[in-house]
Each structure stands twice: as C-alpha cells, then as structure tokens.
Amino acid sequence: MDEIFNIEQVSFQYVPGVYALQQVSFRIYENEILTILGSNGSGKSTLLQMLCGLLFPMEGSIYYRGQQLTEKRLKDRDFQHDFRSQVGFVFQQSEVQLFCPTVFDELVFGPLQLDFSEQEAIRRSEEIMQLMRIEHLRNRPSYMLSGGERKKVAIAAVLTMNPQVILIDEPMGGLDPKSRSFVIDLLFELHQAGKTIVLATHHLELVSSLQSRVVLLNEEHRLAKVASADEIMQDTELLVRTNLIGEYAHKHHDKVHKHLWYPFTPHPHE
Fold it and tell me: CA 207, CA 212: separation in Å to the nearest integer?
C-alpha cells in the first residue's frame, strides 16, 4: 500500500515542560482505516490536529505523501490547495466547525472555498444530504440542532469536499445508539469507496466493530503499541494499563463486588 503520512518521533507541548505527545512514530497507508486509541488526555486530538496541519510538531516531523508538513509548506498556494482538498477533518466538538447560517450553507461553503462552481457545490451538497439523511435539516441553523445532528452535519460538510483522507475526532461522541450504528455503517461505506479514514476514540466498542489497525497511546502521551484490533482487544493487561478498561463495583442482593468492565458480548456468525 502507498504511504500517505509518515509520523517520525513527534512531540508537542502546549505548556513548556508538559508534553501532550512524546516521541510518537507510525505510518498511515492508502485506503486503510486506522484507529488512534487512548484514554482522555492521552494526546489523540493533538495528533489529529497535527495530521490536519492545524498544529505542528515541536520535535520530530510529519510527512504527507513524502513532503514534510510544515507551516511554511502550507503557505505555498498549490500545496495548500492540494492538501486541504485531499485531507478533511471532523472536530470532536462539532459546534466549533459549524458557523454558517443554515445546514445547506455549511455544506456548500467548503466546495466554494476550493473554487468549485456554485452548481457543482450545490450538486455535491444535495447528494451528501441524501447520503447522511439530513435533508430535513437543510434550512435549520446549527444552534437548533441536537448534538447528534450537529455531528452528522459536520461530517457532511467535510464529505462535500470529497477528500481522500478523512480525520474524525471521537466519531461516537454525543450520539445515541441508532446514530452510532449509522456512523459505523458510513465509515465502512466510505472505506469501500476507497477513502483513508483515521479516527481518534476511547470507545473500545468502535475498535471491536471496525477491526482496524490500531495506534494505542498511553497516559504518558507515548506510543504504547501499534497492532491489529484483535491483538489490542485481547491484551487485557495492556488495556488496564492504558486506562481503557477498569474495575467497577455493583451489588447483588446484600453483597458488593468488583470486576473488570469489558464492553463486549460474544455473538455467533453464520
């Protein structure tokens, strides 16, 4: 598979001496689903923002299709246009991403910024609204949307630009069970259409569903392991150590006891 991103010994600090990421290295390949897994505060969102060119490493380097991704490089108009049209980012907090008067305006905004014609921008927006089943929200302002609706609109706004790489921060955040199922189905559909999908999550259920390659970050903001979903999910000791599963207490009659919380139920397949 062709390499899209090469992350080499990347570190980042928001506050001097306090690392958000420390010496993280891995690669992302064409047409794969990659899950960046870690507990809250492990550095997942920081890493996604660096892949999107919103933040830049203080140590180490990130390469996009063989070219170093730097602030200076993104000032080059041709590179910027290519990168922004090929790499889309869905924020964890969808309200940060939505700022236009209506949902329809949100969807046409991106293509118009990439110099598509108004007719093409409208065509894409209509198509994506149908795909995301949000036609009924067309004229709704973002402040009148539920959390799940905002997430769908934020994803739709990225899809109208038809990027090759889609970065999604906590895709399950704020979604009810039906919406979660819809998003998982959408991720599979996008992957089958040839998209490269990189998502950040702490939801083990999503890792189990997607069966992707996993980049696991620990609470020291370092790379704990890169492996298949099966290998990660079977390593209970590692999941406990990275604070992704833990003990919980519950009561049976008069007795209280603790055991590991592990959110999966085996089920048969044909």
Answer: 7
